[in-house]
Amino acid sequence: MSRRILVIEDALEILENIRELLSEAGWTVHCAMDGLEGVQLARTVLPDLILCDVMIPGCDGFEVLSTLRSESLTASIPLLFLTARIDRNSMRRGMELGAEDYITKPFTRQELLGAVQARMERSEFLAEKFRRQVEELRGGMARTLPPQLLTPLNGILGLSSILVDEYESIKRREVQDLARSIGESGQELHRMIKKFLTYSELRMIRLDPSRVESLGRDNLSNALEIGERTMKMLEEDVVCCGRIDATWVPAMISVSPFHLQRLLEELLDNACRHSLPGTRVRLSSQAKGDRYRIAIENTATCECQDRLDGEELAVGQGLGVVISRSICELYGGSLRFESSIGEWTIAHVELPRLDL
Predict the structure, then answer these.
(1) Where are the domains of the chain?
(2) Which of 59, 98, 105 is nearest to 78 (CA)?
(3) Which CATH number, 3.30.710.10, 3.30.365.10, 3.40.50.300, 3.40.50.2300, labels domain 4-107?
(4) CA–CA separation, 264 and 251 (whole Å)
(5) CB-based contacts of 355: which residues, under 8 Å, 6+ apart?
(6) What is the DSSP letter of 120?
(7) 178 contact partners, CB below 8 Å, separation of at least 6
(8) Using H for helix, E for strand and C for coil, what is the string for 190-228?
(9) Across residues 303-319, what is the average pLDDT?
(10) Is there a contact between 310 and 337 (Cβ–Cβ < 8 Å)?
(11) What are phi and psi of 284, to 5 degrees?
(12) pLDDT tens figures, 208-230
């Protein structure tokens, strides 16, 4: 199918010249002579590329670009500016709004076709790259889903089957025990689904460089507030309830509140689950310069807790660690484990901090 190009140009002679050149090269060309008409046509046609003059009636090229980038339907359409003159301020403004490049008038046939062909090839390359990443993501999620979710689901199905098939012979206390076990399996299934959805979201974020770049810039969390909120939530968890001692140093961290809470939940839950019964998990924090450090220490029951460094290993053995490491790395931080085999383990977290 022919690739579609929208040309927005108010000079009829130039517009016809561009239309003729691009049509001869095999592209389907749509034309508009002012900014408002161009925006409406872009919404209707959804072209593969837009060529737009900077100085056009209705609304100028910068307003056209700003409008298109603000709408999800047209936000990703690449745009090349056409301009008779160019200065550094105009170029910077266009690039900040998301323009791909400038084509300076007057231009030759070779310059126009070369710029358009280069942009089309780049779009095809990015589309293929995205397709491969989505396939990789789909495969990764498919490998993660069955072992993580089927265990509690099998428990629910098996126990409920006993209730249905043998309800006439089951004693009242046994019914209560079975119901309690079903409830526990349901809670475990809910916990695993929550982990899996977070893992999937983080994988999707990593496919979008612009979203990764904006994470730390556009997000801020109060460490003390999020820490206390997390502790309150974990008090309702059977594994973690009453086992955590935490000391929070007040600071503003360049991480979204949601991701900071998920990070703390996963690491504290991991520490409690890998500790000897009755032992304490200790969390300490420190604000220094532009970094916020968190250390979570527990008595390790096995040597495997600090080995979850590769994503594929962790997906099978500790999805929470993968989630925690992904959150740290997305915001320019880090997560590492230190341990004495069979004795203790410390999770060391570093996150970017707003140094006031």
Answers:
(1) 4-107, 132-207, 216-352
(2) 98
(3) 3.40.50.2300
(4) 15
(5) 289, 290
(6) H
(7) 159, 162, 163, 170
(8) HHHHHHHHHHHHHHHHHCCHHHHHHHHHHCCEEHHHHHH
(9) 46
(10) no
(11) -125, 155
(12) 777 777 777 778 999 999 999 99
Q: What is the pLDDT of residues 30-48, one digit of tens each?
A: 999 998 999 999 999 999 8
Q: Give the chain's end-to-end CA distance (angstroms, integer).
A: 55
Residue 292: what pLDDT? 95
Query: Taking the model in full, what pTM does it have?
Result: 0.53
Structure tokens at 15: 């517009």
What's the CA gap between 97 and 68, in Å, rounded?
10
Say if CB 311 and CB 199 are below 8 A apart. no
Integer Cα distance of 114 and 107 in angstroms: 11
What CATH architecture applies to the domain 216-352?
2-Layer Sandwich (3.30)
Structure tokens at 31: 């034309």
Task: Tell me which long-range contacts 236-244 makes (C-beta under 8 A, separation of at least 24).
Answer: 237/269, 237/272, 239/269, 239/272, 239/273, 240/268, 240/269, 240/272, 240/281, 243/272, 243/275, 243/279, 243/280, 243/281, 244/268, 244/272, 244/280, 244/281, 244/282, 244/283
- Amino acid of residue 1: M
Q: Beta strands 79-83 and 49-53: pairing type?
A: parallel
- Supply the DSSP symbol for 305: G
User: How far apart (Å, rounded) are the C-alpha atoms in residues 55 and 230?
Assistant: 53
- Whole-number Å distance between alpha carbons of 167 and 177: 13
The yes-or-no verdict on residue 110 having pLDDT over 90 is no
- Residue 208 tokens read as 């979008």
Which two tokens mark 276? 């000897």
Task: Tell me what pLDDT residue 60 has.
Answer: 84
- d(CA 5, CA 120) in angstroms, rounded, equals 10
